[in-house]
Every structure is written in structure tokens, then in C-alpha cells.
Design goal:
alpha+beta, eight-stranded mixed beta sheet, Dna Ligase, domain 1, 701 residues
Length: 701
Amino acid sequence: MLKVFADRGGTFTDIVVVTDEQAIIERLAKHQERFLIVPLPQKQWIVIYKLLSENPEQYQDAVIQGIRDVMGIPPHDPLPEKAIEVVKMGTTVATNALLERKGDRVVLAITKGFKDALRIGYQNRPDIFARQIVLPTMLYEEVIEVNERYDAKGNELTAVNLEQVKKDLQTAYDKGIRSCAIVFVHGDRYPRHEQQVAEIAQEIGFTQISVSHQVSPLMKLIGRGDTTVVDAYLTPILRRYVNQVAAQLPGVKLMFMKSDGGLVAAEKFQGKDSILSGPAGGIVGAVQTSKRAGFDLAITFDMGGTSTDVAHFQGEYERQLESEIALVRMRVPVLAINTIAAGGGSILFFDGSRYRVGPESAGSNPGPACYRRGGPLAVTDANVMLGKIHPQYFPRVFGPEGNLPIDKDIVVEKFTHLAQDIKNATGHTRTPEQVAAGFIAIAVENMANAIKKISLQRGYDVTKYTLCCFGGASAQVACLIADTLGMKRIFLHPYAGVLSAYGMGLADLRAIREKGVEKPLTKALIPQLLQLIETLETQAKTELLSEQVEVTRKEEVVKKVNLKYEGTNSTLTVNFASDVALMQQEFEIEHKSRYGFIPGEKNLIVESVSVEVIQKMDTPEEPLITRTRSVNEPPLSVETVRMFTAEKWYDTPIYRREDLQPEDTISGPAIIVEKISTIVVEPNWEARLTERNHLILQRSD
């Protein structure tokens, strides 16, 4: 049986397979240049495989093709359902649809008088000096104003005109719109009117009906409304993709990663939960492997081909309730991830006076110049130019037929021409390698600034943290990032190049339920909170019971409250306790750390409560490795190459990671290569391998 964990990224799709099929391993062993095979206890193996996310000449869907390649199934033959136990995956389908505004057509039904409320929003001005304000494109196409109203205490002021609503929704339906978002004032507390309109929409035949009191049962019409519209906009396109994958995996348990870091059955995967599906798998993988390695303070750094995702970890997952993704506001719990458009595929520009890196990306098609598809110069090409990436140690998946190594010659040619263009424009003479190093320095600064946002700017001393690096490109710049931030230690898991996919296998089943409260935090409120929490816990457990997943190890319940000072809008999340003083103390400590002060004599308001039920799943074990060489016998390098760093060329040894053994120490400059990534050890750094095959990089000065 196979367990498949997959992450479909913007450039590469990563596949991790856990199997006990000896025949599959024997066949893949003949193609070890493409597949990494790691033995596990109890006669199991992990197979690691990377392929381009887009290769239209070769396949339609990268995840399905990856499973076919591992199992040796020809393109048009059906996949044997009994051979696959489960497929757990993350996808960027909904994220891309939101970025490119390619979701389904949506009609918005909203309380009369609030037709333009979502367009007006909170009147934020990100660029306060811009004289021309360009509002983001609305995701809905039509708006229906419904003459209905409850007051804030639940008194019905105006009943729904059911006949008029039916007529208006039918008109939208006749225009070809099949997705409906329903958002009413105070609908989060008093949902009867929303339920009535949803019933009418269902009778008419709308195939997607998103209702605000179910999608985001919290106060604030704008955030709740935007979230509901996003759900209506993205769920249909997500459903089509899920059905497409499921059709090729009949009878196989299919699960997807949600933005909050939990798994959910494919049939319950919704648009509102899918925006950070891929990055969330990476955070789960980074956090779980860091904890196994003994690091409780970590900055996760995921540099892929298209973007870089960073997050802060201090003992538990950090989530944020309010977020803005692709200029769209959302009020659902998502992992607190800071994403910037900087990756191995970020395009390098010279505009006549300065260097620029991204935000545009070459993606996987055409990809960077070295991908043999006529692409532009990108960050990956700069590392090729600097001698940090060498074709013979990179996957042979390029060119029209996907079987060629990267092309170093075109990289040297393009950087030589670019150096000449820079000289002609500025009069400054730069060698091609100096130009490449300049672009890398800019990319590193951009990524370091992203880490500062989630650490230093929130009161955390980043120098006490371990930098957990993963993603195909992170290990090439890890030391440079750490130097910029003053960090002393870097952690690289043996599956760092595919940790987002591996994280799918380390994730647990999670169900989060939340409800608005908006009452002062007093001792008299505690019984009401306890009753509400009990209701939410029952709802979450009921959802997980319907997942029909194999027996898990244990269950955990996490109870949180979102608190804020009276008269303010910024909430902080603390653990729920029956003792008001304990919650107040935890809030004040967090407020002092975040904002640097504690206002005196201000009441605390409970904005909302949340309950998370976690069912722990069996996850892959990490095998121990033993040392067979003498302690005094150092590892042997496979060759010595030239690498440009710190403004000069170094003779740099290359080591294969599979040749390293526990307690081996390598001083930089050095390059450690593996099938799924390249690790650059800069001068003044040294690398040490542990018995769990973890690579720890430490400053040596």
C-alpha cells in the first residue's frame, strides 16, 4: 500500500510516498537519478520525487503524473485504487484563481442600503500619498439588495420579502450565474433571514450557496461579507479540481490541507479554507520536524520557485483571524504566514540605473534561463553563475522532453551581456559574477525583511531562534539570510527540499469552530463562555467523526479567546481559563511584547471564542543512521569547484549528503548536494550531521 503526500507549488510539484511495496522500490532503484529512496523501520520506504508543476507536452496534472511515475503506470491506464491507501495534498488552484481573478461568477445578496458596503470597505489607504485611488476588483458580478433587517438585539424590524428575493435571484440565475453569497447585517447572530434566502437560492438551482453565518460566524459586516464572497467565488473552481483528481483516484481516501494547518476530507474542502493550502503544509512540516530536532523557537523559511513564505513558531502554531490576501479581506483562521514574491524563479531586471528582483516570476514554464525553455534571467540563474548550483547535481528534468540538465552556457552568456549593458548605461565595470552577486544580495535583503516583519517588528529577538530552511531554493541562501539577521543556527531536515509535501503526512485532522461574543470580560461572563465553548467543541467533534478516517493516536482540544481593550479594534489571542485574572495577565504580557505598553484602567472585551479539536494521526518516523567510519576519518569530497562569494572566488569542495555520517563536520566554504536541493555552506559557517540525518549549520566565529 502507498501513502502519498503531495504539494503542487508554482514551479515544482513535490511528491513524498511511504510504501511497503518491494517491487516498486526495486524498479525505482534503477532510476536513482530521479528518485530518492530512504529505508524506514518495519520494511517500509520513503520515496521522494520532484517534477515541474506545468509541463503541458507531457501531462495534465502534476500530482497524478507523479503518482503514475512512482508506481510505473502508463499515462492512459487507470491507477489501481487498492494499491493506494491515502493521498494528502495541498494545492494552489484557489490561490491562483484569486490572484488572477478567474473564479466563478457570483451574485451577492445583502441587506438593503448596504449595496456598496464591501466596495467601500474600511477605506484603508495603503499608499496615503496616492492621488488616484485604485480600488481592487470586486469578486461579485451582481448585487441584490434584500429588504430585511434585524436590530442588534435580535428584534425583527423588517421581514424578508420572499417573492421579491425569488424574482431577483431568478434574474441572476437566468444570466448564467450559479454561485450565490448571502450576507445580512447581524446575520452572524440572527441567521433566520439568511437561511430563508438560502432556501430560495437552493430551490432556484444555484450550485454554490455561501451563507455568512456558516462561513464566518463573527461580527463585522465587511470582513464577514468579503469572506463569504471569497468562498462563493472559489469553492466551485476548487470543487472542479478536486473532482478531477478524485476521478483519477476512484475509491482512494483523498484529503487536502487547509489554511489553518489541518487536514480535511476532499468533499469538505471549501474555498475559504484553501488560500494557503500549500504554504500551510510547509509550516506544519517545518514545525513538526523542528520540534523533533529539539528546537522550540524557530523561524520557518520556505523559498520555492515562485515565492518565499516565512512564519514564527514559539511552541504552538500562530494563526491570525483577519488577513488580506490578493487585496481581499478575510476573517477565517489561517496560519500566520508572511509571503513575498521572491523565489528561485524571480526575474532579474536592470532598468538602466538599478537592479530589481521580481516580483514577476518565470514560473516553471518557461522558467529561468537555465531551464532550456527560453526564459529570462532569474535568481536560480544567479546561483548558477556564482558556482553555487552545478548542472551535474541538479535534476535532469528540463528541455522539451524533460530529460536534460540545466544549461549553464546560456546563463554565462546572458550575464555577460547584462554586465556589458550595465557598463554602457552607468559607466561602472562589473564582472558577470559581481552582477549575479548583486542580484542575490537584493533578494536576500527582501527575504530578511520579510522575516523581520514576523519577528523583530513583533517584539521577538530573532537571534535566539533557529532558522528552519526548506523549499528547493532556501539552502542556497540560508547562510546569507542568517548573517543578515544575526542568527547563529540553521536547521535543514533531510527532506527539506520537499518539506511542504512531507508536512502533509505530518499533519493532523483539525476542526476549528468560532463564535462572536462582544461582551466585557467579567467573572459573570465565564458560565456563558463555558456553555458556548462546549457547543463549539461538540460541533467540531461531530465534523471530525464524519471524516471516517482510521483510528488516530489521541485527541486534543484547544480553547482560545480573542481579547481587545474597550474602544480598540486590535485583538490578541490567549488561552481560555475559568480565572479572569489569568486571561487578563496573559493578554497584558502579549500586549506589552507586541506594542510596548499597557494602557491603564481599560476594560477587556471578549470579541470571540474559538475551539480547535485535533485528532493526532500516525505520521512517518525518522530513521536513525549510524556511523560506520572512524571518528577521526573525515568525509571525502567528490570534487572541488569554483564558487564566488564575499566578493571573491573560492576553491570549494562538494560533498554528497548521503556520504555524510553522524558527527561529521564540514567547514565552509563548501557545497553539500542531494537529489532534491543544494546546500551552500558560506565562509565562517560549519555544517554538522546528527544521528537523525539532520543537518545543523552553525556560525563558526
